[in-house]
Every structure is written in structure tokens, then in C-alpha cells.
């Protein structure tokens, strides 16, 4: 298969893939096309949804079709992106107290690290948002240090609180609603990911770098109260 690969999806979507496994180069190509389509939207474009190795181009089938949209996207592939593609650094606070980090001790045991070493490794990770999925505001980040890579749990845990900082493999995310997860819960954040702003409903954009900063319990509780 040659890349980029174009695949019609339903009656109003075109999936554009730049590889079959995620590498920095492949994801950079996804981000660049996402930015180009935002700056030069083809006729009939409704939405672009970037993911790990591909992006979905959603269009209005009443004004265009798969062939026309593919031709428009192909014509834009070599277009230079105006401005930076590096994203905006976002800061997420996290408290690692034991009752807010029920899996921290297990992660330490399974990785052969102390709990403080797990925390230090996570805080040192070069994390980037690569896609949204699964639930509103669930921003999947890559860049968890290899020393912390663990497979998902064999069975998910129910009723995991909003704000839980989760890791699995090379990925990390902050839960935005209470729901089950099979990822490892190593802390909790008071940082609001969902925003009351229709023009910008989430804190992150795909491509943003993310820095986690440690806070104590008192600061966590104050931030939770301030967020209502």
C-alpha cells in the first residue's frame, strides 16, 4: 500500500492514512494536513478529525463527493502550513496522594521502581496530544517514559473518578468523566479539560505538548473548590 492512502467512509467521509504504524514522521504528516485543511478548507468540508496515523475528512454529501474531496485533499498535500505546527504547551496539575493514586504502588512494584521514581519519570515525560476518542475530552497523549510502560489491566475498574491521571503502554490521559478504565491510575488532577466554551470545548488541541506538574493535597483541594 502506498501512502497517503485514501479510503471512502460512509457517504460523507474520506479517511486519509499516512502509515500503518505510528511514528513521529507519520503523525507529523497527519498534523500538517489537519492544519492545511483548516487554513485552506475545500468546498464542502465539514470537519477534520486527526488520529494516530490518519485523519477523517468529513464533508457535506449534498455539495461534494468522495472523488472531488480526494482530489481537493491531494492538491493540498504539498501546501506549506502557515505558522507553527508545534502546538501550545499545556500544563496539567496532578496530586499523587495514595487515595488519589490507587495504582501507584502496583506500578512501582511492576516496574521495579520506587513510587517517587515513578512520579519523577512521569513528570519528566515529553507528552503530546495525538488524538481525541472514547469519551468527550479524552485526549490521548504519547510520550510516557519506557520505564513506565505496562500493558492494560486484565479487567477494567468501574467508577474511576473524573480527573484521574491514567497510563498504559506509552500513552497517558486525564479522565473527564467518571467511567470504567483498564488503565493504571497514578494520580488525580484538578485541571479542567472540558470547558464551557462552544468555540473551544477542550483544553488541548491535537499536537499540543503537555507538562504535568506536581501539587500537594492542599493545593489540589483548593483547585477543586475553585473549579466548583
TrEMBL record:
Q: Which SUPFAM superfamilies match?
A: Cyclophilin-like, PH0987 N-terminal domain-like
Specify the species. Answer: Yoonia sediminilitoris
Gene Ontology terms for molecular function: ATP binding; hydrolase activity
Domain (Carboxyltransferase): give its ranges: 4-204
PANTHER family in UniProt: 5-OXOPROLINASE SUBUNIT B
Q: By what name is this protein known? A: Inhibitor of KinA
Q: Which UniProt keywords apply?
A: ATP-binding, Hydrolase, Nucleotide-binding
Amino acid at each position: 500500500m502506498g501512502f497517503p492512502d485514501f479510503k471512502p467512509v460512509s457517504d460523507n467521509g474520506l479517511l486519509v492514512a499516512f502509515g500503518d504504524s505510528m511514528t513521529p514522521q507519520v503523525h507529523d504528516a497527519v498534523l500538517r494536513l489537519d492544519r492545511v485543511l483548516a487554513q485552506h478548507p475545500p468546498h464542502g468540508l465539514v470537519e477534520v478529525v486527526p488520529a494516530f496515523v490518519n485523519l477523517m475528512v468529513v464533508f457535506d454529501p449534498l455539495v461534494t463527493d468522495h472523488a472531488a474531496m480526494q482530489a481537493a485533499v491531494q492538491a493540498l498535500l504539498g501546501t506549506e502550513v502557515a505558522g507553527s505546527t508545534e502546538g501550545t504547551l499545556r500544563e496539567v496539575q496532578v496530586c499523587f496522594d495514595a487515595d488519589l493514586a490507587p495504582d501507584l504502588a502496583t506500578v512501582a512494584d511492576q516496574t521495579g521502581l520506587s513510587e517517587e521514581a515513578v512520579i519523577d519519570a512521569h513528570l519528566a515525560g515529553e507528552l503530546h496530544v495525538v488524538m481525541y476518542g472514547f469519551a468527550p475530552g479524552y485526549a490521548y497523549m504519547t510520550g510516557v517514559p519506557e520505564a513506565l510502560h505496562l500493558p492494560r489491566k486484565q479487567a477494567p475498574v468501574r467508577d474511576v473518578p473524573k480527573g484521574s491521571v491514567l497510563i498504559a503502554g506509552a500513552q497517558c490521559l486525564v479522565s473527564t468523566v467518571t467511567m470504567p478504565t483498564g488503565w493504571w491510575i497514578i494520580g488525580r488532577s484538578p485541571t479542567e479539560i472540558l470547558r464551557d466554551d462552544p468555540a473551544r470545548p477542550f483544553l488541548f488541541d491535537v499536537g499540543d505538548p503537555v507538562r504535568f506538574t506536581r501539587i500537594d493535597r492542599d493545593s489540589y483541594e483548593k483547585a477543586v473548590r475553585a473549579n466548583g
